[in-house]
Design a protein that fits this description.
This protein is mainly alpha-helical. The chain has 5 helices and no strands. The protein has helices at residues 10-17, 27-40, 49-69, 85-105, 110-129. The radius of gyration is 18 Å and the shape is globular. The termini are far apart.
Length: 136
């Protein structure tokens, strides 16, 4: 873990690193801020990338299950309350932290991931235009 020379509150740290633009905070900026935060903890460890990749992927699965459990997905169970969107958002943020760690561990820049997402949207739109849909 890297030493912080002077303790800083989370609010101060975020306001220093996450400067919103007119259109909000960019996807790339969010990834960079998470990487800076993770580097304070000594993550990711590129020397042990293979081992750590496995751990990060397992953590993604665990967090995805936690996210699923925040929803009322079980058709055989009667739920008393509506799902908590705040809790689901928290679990999705956890997923994003591990995803971003994998991105950084494998030296994929925020711009490269953003481009990969844009390319995937384009590919999926081509599939939709060719007749693909989610119905079985």
């Amino acid at each position: 873990m890297k030493d912080l020379q002077t303790p800083i509150s989370p609010e101060e740290w975020l306001s220093k690193h996450l400067c919103p633009t007119e259109n909000g905070v960019t996807f790339q900026k969010i990834m960079q801020v998470i990487s800076e935060y993770q580097s304070l903890l000594g993550y990711p460890d590129k020397e042990h990338r293979d081992r750590d990749s496995r751990d990060y992927f397992l953590a993604l699965i665990a967090e995805a299950i936690e996210a699923l459990d925040t929803t009322n997905w079980k058709p055989w169970k009667r739920y008393k309350d509506e799902p908590s969107r705040a809790h689901l958002a928290e679990e999705l943020a956890d997923i994003f932290f591990f995803l971003n760690g994998l991105r950084a561990m494998w030296d994929i820049t925020p711009a490269q991931l953003e481009q990969a997402i844009i390319d995937k949207v384009r590919e999926n739109m081509r599939r939709i235009n060719a007749g693909y849909n989610h119905q079985r």
